[in-house]
Amino acid sequence: MYRIAVIGDKDSVYGFAALGLDVVYVGENDDPHKAFKKLCESGYGIIYITEALAEILDEEIQKTNDNPIPAVILIPGISGNTGKGIANVKKAVEKAVGSDIIFND
Amino acid sequence: MATTQVNPTRMELTRLKKKLVTATRGHKLLKDKRDELMRRFLELVKENKELRMKVEQKISDANKNFVLASAAMSDEVISAALLAPKQEVYLDIGEKNVMSVDIPVYDIKTRTPDPNDIYSYGYAFTSSELDDAVKSLADILPDMLKLAEIEKSCLMMASEIEKTRRRVNALEHVMIPDTKEKIRYITMKLDENERSTQTRLMKVKDMMLKEAHGY
């Protein structure tokens, strides 16, 4: 049985607590690398992460891509959509096909 | 292109021929795998794109609701209201094998079946904006989970496609031509050996006849 975590700045993610997801706040004084590593190791099935935070943790997120668990999924934070989430999908297409044939419209 | 030295023997020839058959067969199979993976991947990635746009849109809307809610109430009240959630979401992760890629299949379980259990507070001290915000977020959750499933599958399939493509290319452009070249080399060498034995025998015969009969 796995649980689901949401990690990000407080304003972006606190609402998810009401739904029964585990919420981890990363403020300015916290170390995001440490927090993310801890989440990966404590057996979460899905980790939702704000795009802003994913920017910092890019390397770590890439490492999780080959394992089935956890699934790290980017969501837009309160400061708006940076387009990084969709860029990740784009990158997967480029990796598989060789060139982007889905998003070039 | 026989860069590496091969022994021009019949044994080596048989070995190489077997290797060529295996390589050709493997190449065909891998090519089929790649094509099928690609087909599935493209289907999945289109779905992924649409779902992601939808979810991102909805999350932005929900975030707006939360901003409204926090404008109407103080931070302490909101924190207290959401401090002890009633609902919990669990996940059962199964696996589905698609062309040797184990893509995850999520089975969602909630602790209580009542959808109203997302409101972990009495309504006395909170504003209705918070209710709306929590509700809007709860409505997205199924889509978010679906997105997680699809996006993870896409990522895993992408790396598998990349790997398979490399294997196909390595077989097609290196391994198979190389082996063919080696087989050609050995066959020619063996033929050459045979011809040289033939001529030598003819020459020896001539010499022996000359010695025996004097012509």
3D structure, described in words:
The complex is a heterodimer of chains A (105) and B (215). With 105 residues, chain A is α/β, with parallel strands linked by helices. Chain A is built from five helices and four strands, in the order βαβαβααβα. Chain A has a single domain, classed as Rossmann fold. In chain A, 39% of the residues lie in helices and 22% in strands. In chain A, strands 2-1-3-4 form a four-stranded parallel beta sheet. In chain A, α1 links the parallel β1 and β2. Chain B has 215 residues and is mainly alpha-helical. Chain B contains three helices and two strands; from the N terminus they run ααββα. In chain B, α1 packs antiparallel against α3. At the A-B interface, β1, β3, β4 and α5 of A face α1, β1, β2 and α3 of B. β1 of chain A pairs antiparallel with β1 of chain B, so a sheet runs across the interface. Chain B: Keywords: ATP synthesis, Coiled coil, Hydrogen ion transport, Ion transport, Transport. Chain B: It holds the Pfam family ATP-synt_D.
Please give a quick description of this structure.
Chain B: It comes from Candidatus Limousia pullorum. The complex is a heterodimer of chains A (105) and B (215). Chain A is an alpha/beta fold and 105 residues long.
Mean pLDDT of chain B: 85
Count, helices of chain A:
5
* Most residues in contact: chain pair: A-B, 41 and 61 residues
Roughly how many Å apart are the termini of chain A? 41 Å
Strand content of chain A: 15-25%
Tell the overall outline of chain A. Answer: globular
Shape of chain B: rod-shaped
Order of helices and strands of chain B: HHEEH
Main sheet attributes: strand count, strand direction, barrel closure of chain B: 2 strands, antiparallel
Major sheet of chain A: size, sense and barrel closure? 4 strands, parallel
Could you name the CATH topology of chain A?
Answer: Rossmann fold
| Arrangement of strands in the largest sheet of chain A | 2-1-3-4
**Could you spell the SSE succession of chain A in H and E letters?**
EHEHEHHEH
Separation of the first and last Cα atoms of chain B: 48 Å
Per DSSP E runs of 2 or more residues, the count of β-strands of chain A stands at: 4
